[in-house]
Amino acid sequence: MRILGQVDSAGDRSLRGIAMMTASALSNQVGAALGARAFDAIGPVGVVAVRQWVAAVVLMPVARPPLRRLTWSQWWPVLLLAAVFGCMNLSVYVAIDRLGLALAITLEFLGPLAVALAGSRSRRDLLLAVTAAVGVYVLVLPGGPR
């Protein structure tokens, strides 16, 4: 419990970080699963458009940026980031449409996993990476789970 003026402990920050990471991963996975169910109605491009729109609607009240006061030098990185996220999401949703949800999301996860492992030096992390690699191998086996 935090008392006014007291600095958070490292344990509090770690728990908060774990909670935020878990919520983020859950949001991403639930969004992908729900989006995949809408392919028949609006296709992958429509799903990406809706997902970007929902993200803007959810984040605008939270961030409350002064939109009318932003200059072009402030807008262009925002628009570039939006384009990158749009292309990234479109790639993922087209992959889901063609490969299936489980395999596409598993392959999407490999990039961040590789980056995390590149910065890690512990045996535990290596063991967890090998476990994840076995899971990916099982997913890509011909006739395996999809």
Tell me about this structure.
- The chain is mostly helical and 146 residues long.
- The chain is 80% helix and 0% strand.
- Helix 1 (10-37) packs antiparallel against helix 2.
- The longest helix is centred in the N-terminal third of the chain and has 28 residues, at 10-37.
- The protein is globular and about 50 Å long.
- It starts with 9 loop residues before the first helix and ends in a 6-residue tail after the last helix.
- The mean pLDDT is 83.
Task: Describe the secondary structure blueprint for this structure.
Elements: H1 10-37, H2 39-63, H3 72-99, H4 101-118, H5 123-140
Short description:
The chain contains 5 helices and no strands. The protein is mostly helical and 146 residues long.
List keywords for this structure.
single chain, 146 residues, mainly alpha, 5 helices, 80% helix
